[in-house]
Amino acid sequence: MLDMLSQMATDRLWIYTGIAGSLFGAAFLFWFKDTRMAIWAVGKFDSACESLAKRWGWTWLQNEPDVWRKKYPHVTKKIDELEARIKYLEETK
Q1: Are 74 and 62 spatial neighbours (Cβ–Cβ below 8 Å)?
Q2: What pLDDT score was predicted for residue 45?
């Protein structure tokens, strides 16, 4: 065990390969996210999660429709103000 730790401390190739692998992986994902195959895969994953949620009753897989309102309160406030303004302008015409 001690030999393995001392060898890991002296041999640093594993650090460099880990960093290079993560950089190549990030570059691939940056390119892959806009392809048709990625959109298809995300759709399949979403439908699989939806079917699991319906079949087994897993509510933690289902997204609440208004969760973004809690996450972005400033945007929510601005949207609500704009909607109220539009409603007021439509009523006055």
Answers
A1: no
A2: 92
For the chain, the three-class secondary structure string (H helix, E strand, C coil) is CHHHHHHHHHCCHHHHHHHHHHHHHHHHHHHHCCCHHHHHHHHHHHHHHHHHHHHHCCHHHCCCCCHHHHHCHHHHHHHHHHHHHHHHHHHHC
Length of the chain: 93
Model confidence, pTM: 0.47
49-74 burial code (b ≥16 CB/10 A, e <16): eeeeeeeeeeeeeeeeeeeeeeeeee
Q: How far apart are the first and last CA of the chain?
A: 81
Least confident residue range of 33-37, 53-57, 84-88: 53-57
Residue that the structure tokens 């290079």 belong to: 20
